[in-house]
Every structure is written in structure tokens, then in C-alpha cells.
Specification:
Blueprint (H helix, E strand, L loop, with lengths): L6 H9 L5 E2 L10 H7 L5 H4 L12 H8 L10 E4 L1 H13 L5 E6 L4 H8 L3 E6 L10 H7 L4 E7 L11 H13 L3 E5 L16 H4 L4 E6 L12 E4 L2 H11 L8 H12 L1 H24 L4 E3 L7 E6 L5 H12 L1 E2 L1 E2 L8 E5 L4 H16 L1
Helix pairs in contact: 4-11, 5-6, 5-10, 12-14
Bound molecules: pyridoxal-5'-phosphate.
The site of pyridoxal-5'-phosphate has 13 residues, from α5.
């Protein structure tokens, strides 16, 4: 079955390893294995003893319990362990959707959320987040789009690329719209717990809409562990059984080593999130200071996560803008058009801060020319 090109992955795959200043990344500065073991006070010999077998097929009980603890009112019966959030989203779509189903997808978002339903032959309705609403949802539009024909509403919160976070009240509003129409909600929450302000909502759709709310999450962003491919789905028990059934055809198990490292990370959650929030906030400050000194760049400040969506004042489309910047300076951004939004670029600010600042200086010189 044919599928659209995954525009952001195509772009990053082509250029990220050639960039002098790669600002396309959505991850926080990663741990080396050695740093991670030291950070979590783990004896390295534990990993030497691990048998390199399939491990637990559906994920170890230790892992599933640690995952369930991230959600109120959930147990391991609500957990499906997958190969990253990319595997989690894909499994939800292929398990739930049939040709002809109606899906309402809120964009900009990770492209899986509209291209996979389209590939499956669904009727995909698009709702756009609005910059004039600080990249939040226009609820009138959402209400008009969703009907009893809608099988699934799909969104990403905190949002990639804008960093906007829906409040508890807004999530409840979406849940009410879905409930009235008997629809499922898939909320991709890979940037959960990375709020820039402690007052911002941290709730998951699986907590708010226990019946038909499905949450996906992973170890890649919040825990800086994209190199272990561990993600998961949280859903009601019946759906979870359906996901497990589908999963047998494409996963068997995740790596037993990855399972073990994910357990260590989840058992050190507070410590890792504290480390990561410091990196996030320092990067964001550098970025916002820089934006306020640049008259051709503007920004609606992100509320969570690792990325921001800057708007530029230039005639060129975002692919040409980013390509020229990259070829002239080695600074690599992600064109907004890869996420269906013109005149914007996504910028990641959570890698090496010194390197990031140097890249921004090069960007400034280029803008002046
Ligand atoms: C919103 C969103 N969902 C899912 C993914 C996939 O993440 P992973 O498979 O590494 O968990 C990404 C990666 O950038 C993302 O930004």
C-alpha cells in the first residue's frame, strides 16, 4: 500500500549528518551508556549478565508496572509496549481503523497522524491549530468537523512543532466532543512532563477520557533515550488486548536490553526530568533572547517540549529558506512546509548549548546579508 513521503524524516535523513549546526533535533542532549549508568547509580555488571534472548514478549512486568505508574488509575493491563512512539501510533491506527472510517486530525503534527489513516483508506478531515490562538484549537471548528461518523480524533499534545500545551479544560472539551459522538481520541504525548512552567497541564488523555482515550508516549524525548527504541500505548483493557493481538505480527518483543534500561530510567524519573528540564529551559532562554534581537524572526513561545516554531520574514518558501541557510552556514532547521505550515521553521534548542549559540550567531550573520 502506497503512503505519502514522510516529509520531516526525509529532510532530516538527507541533511542532519552533514550539518555543522543541526537544529532539527527534537531530543534533549542524550546520555552515553556510561553516563546513564553513573547517573542512575547502576552497577555495569548488571548489563553484562543479561541473556540476549527475546526477553518477555509483551515487555517485562517490571517495565509495564513502571509505565502504568506514569498514569493515575492504570495498571499493566492498560499497557502495550512498542518500538518507540512511532511504533505505538502506527499500531493504534492499524488496529483501530478500516477503509472508509472518518478521522479528524489536528495539525501541525507528526505526519503519521494523517498519512497513515489516509493510507488505510480513511476519510481524513484536517483541523489547523491557529497562531492567533497561540497554536491552540479553534473549538468551533473542531465541533463542526466531528460528527457521529467520526471514528477517531488524533492530535499531539504537547505539540510538535509549536510547543503549545492544551489545558486540562481544553482536553476535557475535546473528550466531551468525542464522547458525544462516540469517537476515540489518540493523543501522542511524547513531550509529556517537559512543561516549561510548573502550572502547565501534565494530564494525559488516557486519564481524562478513560473509556476511549488512547495515549502514546516513549522514552525518546522526556527521558533522552531515543537510542533505546521503547514506546508504549495506554488504553482501556479491551483495546489493549486488540493492540497486543495486532502487535504479534510486527514486534515479537522489544530488545531485552532496552527494556532493562527503560526500567532504570523510569525508576529515576524525577532525577532525569530535573536534568532535562534544566537543559530545556537554558536552551529556550538562549533562543528567546536571540529571537528578540532579530527583527526578521518572530516566535509564539513554546509552553513545553524541546522545539519551537519560528516565523521568518522573507519572500522564499521554507524549503528554499532552509536550504540556503544550510548551504551558506551549515545551520540546519526544519522547513515549516514539511509540517504543512508555510513561512515557519522548526528549531530544536536542547542539544549542546554552546554549539547552539554559535549556530544562532551564524544564522544572524546570514539574516543580515
Ligand atoms: C510527536 C512525535 N511523535 C512520535 C515521535 C516518534 O518518537 P519515537 O519513536 O522516538 O518515540 C516523534 C519524534 O520526533 C514525535 O515528535
Amino acid at each position: 500500500m502506497k503512503i505519502d513521503f514522510f516529509k520531516i524524516e526525509e529532510w532530516m535523513n538527507k541533511y542532519e549528518h552533514l550539518a555543522k549546526y543541526d537544529m532539527t533535533a527534537t531530543c534533549i542532549k542524550s546520555f552515553s551508556l556510561k553516563e546513564f549508568f553513573e547517573f542512575t547509580n547502576t552497577d555495569f555488571s548488571e548489563i553484562y549478565e543479561k541473556p540476549l534472548d527475546y526477553g518477555y514478549i509483551t515487555g517485562s512486568p517490571r517495565l509495564k508496572n513502571n509505565i502504568a505508574d506514569l498514569y493515575s488509575g492504570k495498571s499493566e493491563k492498560n499497557v502495550t509496549v512498542t518500538l518507540g512512539a512511532i511504533g505505538a501510533n502506527s499500531l493504534v491506527f492499524t488496529s483501530l481503523l478500516n477503509r472508509g472510517d472518518e478521522v479528524v486530525s489536528i495539525i501541525p503534527t507528526y505526519q503519521q497522524h494523517y498519512s497513515i489513516p489516509k493510507q488505510l483508506g480513511c476519510n481524513v478531515k484536517i483541523i489547523k491549530l491557529k497562531p492567533e490562538l497561540n497554536w491552540h484549537i479553534d473549538f468551533e471548528e473542531l465541533e463542526n468537523a466531528v460528527s457521529e461518523k467520526t471514528k477517531l480524533i488524533t492530535l499531539n499534545n504537547p505539540n510538535n512543532p509549536t510547543g503549545a500545551v492544551l489545558s486540562e479544560a481544553e482536553l476535557k472539551k475535546i473528550a466531551n466532543i468525542a464522547k458525544t459522538n462516540n469517537a476515540y481520541i489518540l493523543c501522542d504525548e511524547v513531550y509529556r512532563f517537559l512543561n516549561h512552567n510548573s502550572k502547565t497541564n501534565n494530564l494525559s488523555i488516557a486519564e481524562i477520557y478513560a473509556d476511549k482515550g488512547i495515549s502514546t508516549f516513549s522514552m525518546s524525548k522526556t527521558f533522552s533515550l531515543a537510542g533505546i527504541r521503547v514506546g508504549f500505548i495506554i488504553a482501556n483493557e479491551t483495546l489493549t488486548e486488540e493492540f497486543q493481538h495486532q502487535r504479534q505480527y510486527n514486534t515479537i518483543s522489544i530488545s531485552a536490553i532496552d527494556d532493562y534500561i527503560a526500567c532504570l530510567a523510569l525508576e529515576n524519573k524525577d532525577k532525569i526530568i530535573k536534568r532535562n528540564k534544566e537543559i530545556v529551559l537554558a536552551g529556550k532562554k538562549t533562543l528567546t533572547d536571540w529571537v528578540s534581537s532579530e527583527n526578521k524572526i518572530s516566535l509564539i513561545e513554546p509552553e513545553a517540549g524541546t522545539i519551537a516554531f519560528i516565523k521568518y520574514d522573507d519572500k522564499r518558501n521554507s524549503y528554499d529558506f532552509c536550504l540556503d541557510l544550510f548551504k551558506t552556514t551549515g545551520v540546519l532547521l526544519l522547513p515549516g512546509d514539511a509540517m504543512e505550515v508555510p513561512k515557519h521553521c522548526r528549531i530544536g534548542y536542547c542539544g549542546n548549548l554552546k554549539h547552539f549559540s554559535e549556530g544562532l550567531s551564524e544564522f544572524s550573520k546570514w539574516l543580515k546579508n
